[in-house]
Amino acid sequence: MAKRIEFQQYGGPEVLRWVDVEVSDPGPQQVLVENKAIGVNYIDTYVRSGLYPAPSLPSGLGTEAAGVVKKVGADVTGLQPGDRVVYAQSSPGAYSEYHCVDQDKLARLPDGITFAQAAASFLKGLTVYYLLRQTWHIKPGDTFLFHAAAGGVGLIACQWAKALGAHLIGTVGSAEKAARAKAAGAWATINYNQEPIAARLSELTDGNKVAVVYDSVGKATWEASLDCLRPRGLMVSFGNASGPVTGVDLAILNQKGSLYVTRPSLNGYIRDRETLRIASNALFSLLASGAIDVAVPASQQFALRDASRAHEALQGRRTQGSSLLIP
Ligand SMILES: NC(=O)c1ccc[n+]([C@@H]2O[C@H](COP(=O)([O-])OP(=O)(O)OC[C@H]3O[C@@H](n4cnc5c(N)ncnc54)[C@H](OP(=O)(O)O)[C@@H]3O)[C@@H](O)[C@H]2O)c1
Known about the structure:
Layout: E1 2-7, E2 17-21, E3 30-40, H1 42-49, E4 59-60, E5 65-72, E6 84-87, E7 98-102, E8 106-108, H2 115-135, E9 143-146, H3 152-164, E10 167-172, H4 175-184, E11 188-191, H5 197-204, E12 210-215, H6 222-227, E13 229-237, H7 251-255, E14 260-262, H8 266-269, H9 273-289, E15 301-303, H10 307-315, E16 323-326
Helix pairs in contact: 2-3, 2-9, 3-4
NADP nicotinamide-adenine-dinucleotide phosphate binds at residues 41-43, 124, 127, 148, 150-154, 172-173, 177, 216-217, 220, 238-242, 264-266, 314-315, 317, 319.
């Protein structure tokens, strides 16, 4: 037997339960991983609330962790018991002491990268990789807007942008978060609780605005984000922290300058072992060089059984950078 977090109905953090579970054998293409550090992602709150419904109830939660391979399925190649690995985009259930994961969701962990670093950065770093390298190819000297810049994805984006020689303008909800984003490499910040986003961005860019906006806040920032774009700019709407964007009249894209919009997801870009290998190598080399630091303070490392507290902190906007669950 092992322990995991489970929920039987959708709702707030209080629906999460600490339960006993049988440890199952991996399927032919799967690997059984003993989790050592588990990543907390905002998407987990959407699954728990029912915004993104789980395949069935009761359900496990979480899709990202780092740990040690315990067993491999009959058709698995290139991995064996004892290997250190990290995974993202697993079936729901990574908030668990053990989890069976499809082999094409796993990467072998380089020696210098700890379980905590890996679980704090894998899903979020792969996301930043596809956003900055593929959805729009950010080049040295480019200036762009990235919302929630002091969050888990956001702090990695600040550091990745700096490594690319690009100017990330980050929105944040407090002065402390502004300082954190600046320290991580943001070129400028906008406190969206105090300053009008589009007017401030226009000042920062001498009226030029930006060619691309990355918006994971959703409902609260949708229209201001469009106002930050130059004619024919790209709005990348990749999350719903304030609620989903719905009921859009496409004419708004015409009115605000023949704009483009995309609503991407990680599994639309990391589709197989080869795309995962390329993206994870790019992330691992930035972690290994120190260009990306994902140290998680003790206040954001929660015991696995306290997953509900981690969700309260994340949704209460009390976190900076990544949070972890430790089995
Ligand atoms: N599409 C994809 O492929 C993909 C992949 C990974 C993540 N995401 C999205 O990226 C976003 C960031 O994920 P994360 O795990 O790194 O979370 P996070 O950024 O650490 O936490 C969310 C942040 O959003 C900001 N926020 C703004 N309005 C909010 C509201 N009404 N309620 C709560 N927070 C609000 C808060 O920062 P301030 O206090 O500074 O406002 C908060 O800290 C999420 O929207 C997630 O769904 C998308």
